[in-house]
Amino acid sequence: MIDATDQSFEQDVVERSRSVPVIVDFWAEWCGPCKQLGPLLEAAVEDAGGEVDLVKVDIDANPRTAVSYGVQSIPAVKAFRDGRVVDEFVGAVPRSSVDLFLRGLLPSEADRLVELGDVDSLRRALELEPDHPGARGALARLEAAADPVLGPGLAALDEGDTERGLDLLLEALKGAPADVRNRIREVMVGVFTQIGQDHPLSQEYRRRLAAALY
After folding, report:
1. CA-to-CA dists, residue 79 to 34, 54, 68, 117, 138, angstroms
2. pLDDT at 70 over 90
3. Active site residue ranges
4. pLDDT digits over 174-213, tens only?
5. Structural domain boundaries of the chain?
């Protein structure tokens, strides 16, 4: 656990959250409910075994950050992942609610299997979560790697040229049979998941994909 300031918040929370989920506890010394919630957050984060960080922000000492994130009542807890707020709650809640809040931020077993990346792990992930977009996209990508139609697009993605890879996959949609079109869709959806649904490329190519398919 660390205490962030107006000056350090960007590094301590926003940038750090690109590597690990960060829970931010906005509090103040005069706040009784804050003193009730604080130890529960600390215990829950400790029990998470390093899979999530806890950062505390004293709103009296750091008003700029509190205002920036719309903190109007405390305790206010916000969860950051990939540089943005992904969940939050206000007020002192029981430990069971804190645990449930953290559980939503931690990777599921399917997520862990997707990180392994082999065919068996990806298929097992889909058994656990049939609609897991990362698993479906990654599996489609593996199975399509040798396909001459999809190959150039996948090669560009593997080289880190995401925009060119997506362009080539869209080009491959033209005149492709239904099964190939479905594989391309799954690969592209998987790419959107990897780079983030709010990424400009995800927003642009999701629109272009929908137009090409429908």
Report:
1. 17, 9, 15, 27, 27
2. yes
3. 31, 34
4. 888 888 888 888 888 888 877 877 888 999 999 999 988 8
5. 2-103, 109-213
Over residues 73-84, the mean pLDDT reads 92
Q: Domain 2-103, CATH 3.40.50.2300 — does that match?
A: no
In this model, does residue 152 exceed pLDDT 90? no
The residue type found at 159 is: E
The whole-angstrom separation of Cα 191 and Cα 18 is 17
Considering the chain, what is the average pLDDT of its residues? 87
